[in-house]
Structure formats: structure tokens, C-alpha cells
UniProtKB/TrEMBL annotation:
Name the record gives this protein: Glutamine ABC transporter permease
Listed transmembrane segments: 12-42, 54-75, 87-107, 185-204
Coiled-coil zones: none
Family: Belongs to the binding-protein-dependent transport system permease family.
UniProt cross-references to Pfam families, sorted A to Z: BPD_transp_1
Predominant place of localization: membrane
Amino acid sequence: MDFIGAYSPENLTFLLSGFMVTLKVAAIAIVLSFLLGTIIAIIRYAKVPVLSQIVAVAVNIIRNLPLLLIIFFMRFALPEVGINLDIMTAAIAGLTIFEAALISELIRSGLNSIDKGQIEAARSSGLNYIQTLWHIVLPQAVQRMVPPTVSQFIALLKDTSLAVVISLPELMHHARIINGGHQDYVIPIFIMVAFMYFTVNYLLSIFAKRFEAKHA
């Protein structure tokens, strides 16, 4: 094992550039999956005729598929029907679709956890359904679903490593390139990769715990 050589400025810079891609892809996918997941959850919570049933079927299908299959589909299957996505877009699309299905269930559970009496009281006070959902249900649901949602975002960040199979230039991709030329760098490089993932995920977990304690 050659820690000195593995941790040369060039290698660390190369790893960091890959990690920036990882964080960028994760950040975009987190925002998009949360927005899409929220829309899906509200549609199902509101029991929109026909649409809620269609969305429920789609969510159940996606939740039971491997994320790797979805990423492959975005990158290699869509071009067969004329939809060509670059590597980063394909990775973001795959992560967004998969995570949105999971997050929608978390949000829907948060919405369903709100006492129906509060909803009835809000409606009797003159608020319409949309106002009740926006001012009464969602604020309380958000507080309850933040910890599990952050946990899902942590999983999403780790799942970005699967995009290495479509050659996304993220952290694991760069680690493999370095290791490919120097076998004695393998353990030091993977230790550094683990440290990078751990640092960000640990900070996210601390945020979730503090948020939960603050609003308990």
C-alpha cells in the first residue's frame, strides 16, 4: 500500500473533481425527486380520480425495479425510441424517477399521519381543500417526514455510485481510473472515497437529528 503516492495532489484533485460531479448529480436529483415525489404524494393523498390509480401503479412498479436497471434504461434504451440523453442527464433522470417513487411514499405517509379532526376543523372554519392542505396538513407533515426523507437523500447520494456503469465521471469512476494504473493505491484510494462519502452523509444525518429534536 502506497498512501503517499495515492494521496498525491494530482490524485486528490482528481478525486475531488469526481466528488463534485457526485454532489452535483445528487443535489439536482434530490431537488427534482422531492418536487416530483411531493406532486405524486398529493395526487394519491387527494385521491384524484383515475390519475391517482395510474400514479399508484407506476410507483409500485418503479419501487420494485433495481435502480441500476432504470439507469441503464435511461442511457441505452431510450435512444432506441429517439430519446438521446447524455451521461449526466441519464444518471439524474434515473435517480430522480427511482427516488421520487420512494419519497412519494414517505410524504404520503406524513400527510396521512395528520389527524383528520384538524382537517375537518379547518374545513368548517371556511378553508377550502387546497387551503387546508397548504396551511394545515403540509406544514405538519413536513416536520414529521424530514428525518426519513433526509435518510432517503443520504441513500440517493450513495446510489450515485451506480452511475459508474454508464461512465459518469463521478467519484467512483475517478477512483477506478486511479486504481487501474496503480494496484498499490487501491486500499488508500478507497479509504479516501469512503471518507468523502461518510463526511457528507454524516453531516446530513446530524441535520436530520437536530431538526427532529428541535421540532419534537
